[in-house]
Amino acid sequence: MNDITIERLPAERLDELEPLWHAMLDQVVLEDSVVPIRPAAESWPLRRAVYVELLQRPEAFALVARRGEDLIGYAMVKIEDADAVWYTGSLQANLESLALLPDERGKGLGTRLLDAVDEELAKLRVTDLTIGVDVNNTGAKRFYERRGFKGGFLLMYGRPGGGPWTAVEREREAPYRSMWLPDGVPGADDPQG
């Protein structure tokens, strides 16, 4: 782990994150997400646009982890004003994404990235951080719980009027296919999968 550096990523280099974004999507699919996952080719342009918009706020930041020149993980953090409902500081943060290459998971890289996020938030005097986790991603939930986070809000997905869920219909039309794993099937060549 000593050969890893963590640094801020300038907004003009956001496209470097695309392979890691797709690795994170693959993981969400492996965890059997309740919400169907958008096809990989559609997902990155939409996520990239979100990142561009949130990095327009000067306090927001992206941290990347590198081993040598190789990008192996990132954390994207949005900074917002105080919450209107829950007590927060005058600024609050949301961990938009934490993505690691599959071979880097379980080796302490996520901890190192979150430690670096904590340091950046301390510099900004931001004392509140929220993190969204897919309900079926028990590994991620345990990881954040070990850091002192607790579930406090649940997003419900559905369709007004109770009709067929749009996300399920879309998945039937264009199922998720990995851009990185063999045959587009998450875990196809994974001996642990």
Overview in brief:
With 193 residues, the protein is of the alpha+beta class. 32% of the residues lie in helices and 19% in strands. It has one domain (4-184): Gcn5-related N-acetyltransferase (GNAT) (Aminopeptidase).
Please give a structural write-up.
- This protein has helices at 18-30, 40-54, 109-124, 138-146, 166-173; strands at residues 4-8, 61-67, 70-81, 91-100, 129-131.
- The protein has one domain (4-184): Gcn5-related N-acetyltransferase (GNAT) (Aminopeptidase, 3-Layer(aba) Sandwich).
- It is 32% helix and 19% strand.
- Residues 185-193 have low confidence and may be disordered.
- Helix 3 links the parallel strand 4 and strand 5 (129-131).
- It contains 5 helices and 5 strands, in the order E-H-H-E-E-E-H-E-H-H.
- It has a 5-stranded mixed beta sheet with strand order 1-2-3-4-5.
- The protein is α+β, with helices and mostly antiparallel strands.
List the quaternary state of the chains: single chain
CATH topology call: Aminopeptidase
E-strand count = 5
Number of domains: 1
Give the strand order of the largest sheet, numbering strands 1, 2, ... along the chain.
1-2-3-4-5
Q: State the secondary-structure class.
A: alpha+beta
What is the average per-residue confidence, as pLDDT, rounded to a whole number?
Answer: 85
Our Rg estimate from Cα atoms comes to 17 Å
- Name the CATH homologous superfamily: Gcn5-related N-acetyltransferase (GNAT)
Helix-strand pattern: EHHEEEHEHH
Cα distance spanning the termini: 25 Å
Kindly estimate the percentage of residues that lie in beta strands according to DSSP.
15-25%
Number of helices: 5
